[in-house]
Amino acid sequence: MQPIEIISGTAIAMDGDDIDTDRIIPARHLKALTFDALGTFVFEGDRKNAEAAGAVHPFDAPEHAGASVLVAGENFGCGSSREHAPQALYRWGIRAIAAVSFGEIFRGNSATIGLPCVLLTPEAAAQARAVIAADPTAEVTVDLATKQLRTAGRSWPVEINESLRQRFVSGGWDSLSTLAEGTAAAADLSRRLPYLNGWRAA
Predict the structure, then answer these.
(1) Which value, in Å, is the radius of gyration of the alpha carbons in the chain?
(2) Which domains, ranges and CATH numbers included, belong to the chain?
(3) pLDDT tens for the chain, residues 1 to 202
């Protein structure tokens, strides 16, 4: 299993609160058989609306190409429980999200795929977004070991559920790998269970 302790890269600053999962990935893309192409459609409606208004959505801005950290406001990922929302962000390239608060189901779905969601105070989130907007090329680091967000010589404390943090830094976030590690033990146990072996003596 791959531990996730430090995530670094350029960042996208998204203003606004209550950005819901319907906006992150429109419902018409939920019919996809795999998550592989979802990154192409992340914020599709918002991006088209921005283009129609003569603006550029943050996920279309050339200076944000390749960004791996997203900094947002309150209640990010609220709305429906669709797991496609964190998958779309992850497939686009986002590897950590810092926000004032999250939709609980979104945060859980993110943890399942190795996408940490950390909390900033409203003041810290506003300050971090301002720094990112001023210099989109600045490296931003989400440090789960020290529980900090760092960029441009500044740092802010972040919060994350301790159980989730331990899962990330230990590599235990990957439940499929955890299950796979127990394959031999499960096979051995099945050989010793009477009801799986005609009730013969173990």
Answers:
(1) 20
(2) 6-171 (3.20.19.10), 174-202 (no CATH)
(3) 689 999 999 999 999 999 999 999 998 888 877 888 999 999 999 999 999 999 999 999 999 999 999 999 999 999 988 899 999 999 999 999 999 999 999 999 999 999 999 999 999 999 999 999 999 999 999 999 999 999 999 999 999 999 999 999 998 876 655 555 666 767 677 778 887 777 655 4
